[in-house]
Every structure is written in structure tokens, then in C-alpha cells.
Amino acid sequence: MSEFALIRRYFAHLGAERADVALGVGDDCALLNIPAGQTLAVSLDTLVSGVHFFPDVAPEALGYKSLAVGLSDLAAMGADPAWATLALTLPAADETWLRAFAAGFGQLASAHGLQLIGGDTTRGPLSVSIQVHGLIPTGTAIRRSEARPGDAILVSGTLGDAGLALRHRLAAAPVASELQRRLDYPEPRVALGQRLRGIASAMIDLSDGLAADLGHLLAASGVGAELELAHLPLSPSVAAQVAATGDWSLPLASGDDYELCFCVPAPSLGNIASLAAELNVNLTQIGWIRAESGLTCRLPNGERLPTLPGGYDHFRTD
Fold first, then answer.
1. What's the pLDDT at 214?
2. Which residues of the chain have pLDDT under 50?
3. Which positions make up the binding site?
4. Do 129 and 164 have their domain in common?
5. How far is the C-alpha of 251 from the C-alpha of 229, rounded, in Å?
6. At what angle do helices 3-10 and 95-111 cross, to 10 degrees?
7. Residues annotated in the binding site for substrate, as ranges?
8. What is the pLDDT of residue 308?
9. Which residues in 11-44 are b (16+ Cβ under 10 Å) and which e?
10. Are residue 35 and residue 126 in the same domain, yes or no?
11. Which residues bind Mg(2+) 3 (predicted)?
């Protein structure tokens, strides 16, 4: 199958059909109509075989997750998903693999009203690069840089499930189905991000671990924070692992959670319970923003966690 036949068969009409796409897949460029009063949000992620996913990952799961990580970035800004471009490098044009990959991608794209508008296909070691584009009403984007002392810090969902699945997989141990799903099919919190416009003062998605990603938010805002580890939302599996080992690096640093960590001024905290119920998502307050720089984590006994675990870093050598 030729490159262009591959594109026509599997990617030319993938995702939702949007009226603001004047020209999509099939020309030198896509042509897009940005609605008046909207700001364009753009994010790009690359997933590489053997680095971001196991070489034997199910192609449907890879198609889904490769888009989910970008949608999570849009969610962290409060954006409405609109378009995506895809650069796919393949060892070979395996039609069974392509069909499943496109199905996983298309399922998530359609669910969020996103249309694939172009990209590139090449031959080589397996990797996936996806650029997502979203729209935000002008002036309402939620940035990392606006947290203020006294703001509450909250997270969605539970922390550490994907990290525990990865630990089990690397140790050749059985992986519970619910943990494997959290690793392979993370749920981008798009609706939550949209609803937090006008409520959250700052926000970031959790891809590299709570401690590292919150640290980026604190640095951008010029503030510090104190977390209560006893308040971290943990699934039974992760809670049991922490209780057995006393190792908090699993929920603090394992990454791949793709939950939202956000700050809310105290007067707006009353909106959180109703928002959680409306969206059927767990929202948990885990700490407070303070003026003094740095991140302090308090153990359940009130003592300070002596060393903060680092998050994932592609170029860390220690």
C-alpha cells in the first residue's frame, strides 16, 4: 500500500466533521476558520516506541493514548478541542495495525468533537507525533502563572495508578485490568478544564508526576505550596502499595496520570463539590499555596517528607 493510499484509507476522514475546517486532509496545508472572539491553543507531543510505550502495545490503545496526552494539555488551559495533525512513522504499512490505531484515535477524537486535518507518514522506527489545536474564549485561558498565596490546591481523579501498572509490567508481574486501563486509556479531563474557566486561578496536567508538575506551576507563579500526603486521592491498589512500603514516590512522581492539578481561590471553593457531582469526577483538595517558595509535603504523622522525588525527565542522567 502506498503512502497516499494509506492516508486516504485510514486518516482522510478521521474524527468529527467540523464546519470551521475549510480544507482538511489531502492538500499541502489545511485551511481553518478561527471563530471571532476565540484564541487558538496549540500543543505538540511525540511518543516513541520503547520510551513512551511498550513495543507490543495494542495499536488501538496507542491511537487512543497518543491523542489523549494532547487533549490533556488542552484541558489544562481550559480549551475546547478543535483540530489535530498527525505525524506517524511506521516500520511497515501493516493494515491490521493501522485499522486498529485509527479506530482508537478516531474514537477519542469523535468523542471530543475534534477533526484530523493533516499530517505526515514516513517509514522508520515506530513513533507518533500529534499536534492538537483548541479554542478558548479570548481572555479566559487558565495559565500556570496565576496561583496566589491562600489558593487551595486540588487534583482530579486518583494518582499513581498508571505508575503502578508500569512498575508491575517492568517487573514482569501480573497487572490488574483497572490499572492497565489507566496506563493505556487515560481520560483527558476536557470537560473539567472547560468548566474551571473563571474558577481556577492556575492549572497544569499531570504527565510527569505531581511533585514535578506542581513544581512547574509554582515556579511560573513565583509561589510555594504545602501538601498533605494523607489527602492524596489514591486507589485501593496504590494505597496498599504506599502503606506496605512507605514509598510516596508512586503517587508523587510516577507520571502518566493525566489528571488536572489546579488552584482555586478560597471564595470559589464552594463551587467544587457541585462541579464534581455534575461531572462525576473526584476532586480532592490536597494543600494550599503559600508565599514562601518551594514545595513541602507533610506525611500523615505531620512530619515533613525529607526528600521530594523527581518526575520523569528524558535527559536526566542520575
1. 97
2. 315
3. 28, 43, 45, 52, 73, 119-120, 144, 205, 207-208, 256, 312
4. no
5. 9
6. 40
7. 52, 256, 312
8. 81
9. beebbbeeeebeebbeeeebebeeeeebeebebe
10. yes
11. 28, 73, 205
